[in-house]
Amino acid sequence: MTGELSLRPYNPQGRSLAALRRIIVLRAGRREERDVTGCRPVEGGYLMRLAGVTSREAAAAFTLGEVRVLRTSLPPLEPGEYYVEDVPGCVVEDESGRRLGVAVGTFWNGAHDVLTVAGQEGKEGEERLIPLVPDFVLTVDARGRKIRVRWDDDV
What we know:
Blueprint: E1 5-7, E2 22-27, E3 30-42, E4 45-50, H1 56-60, E5 66-69, E6 91-94, E7 99-108, E8 113-118, E9 127-131, E10 137-141, E11 146-149
Parallel strand pairs: 6-11
Antiparallel strand pairs: 1-4, 2-3, 2-5, 3-4, 6-7, 7-8, 8-9, 10-11
């Protein structure tokens, strides 16, 4: 259809985008909210129609843009769940409570999210990359700004 945008989600196994009614689009250093007028799943992602985007040329202006979902559009979290967006800024500790540093960001490696942890008492500048998977992440307390991980620097 004319004016549809092709979206490839970071996590294809994540929740469906088809029910979204409003999104945030980041492109060329600008942030804008747009109403979604249609969305359908296709192999590898979605084709989405946005209000005001009615031609191929208008859709092309969104190439390489980043689409985000309004927090109010997200479903409530179940116990033990967290949004990856809430992880940066949390203090990261190992199982014994030893501070490993502070979460400064995350990135998707194609299989799962990875936590970037910077600094450690006495070792500023040190960086750790910790997979955000249950084998390593024991608890995430986003409200309390603390993450407990299974991590051994000697391995």
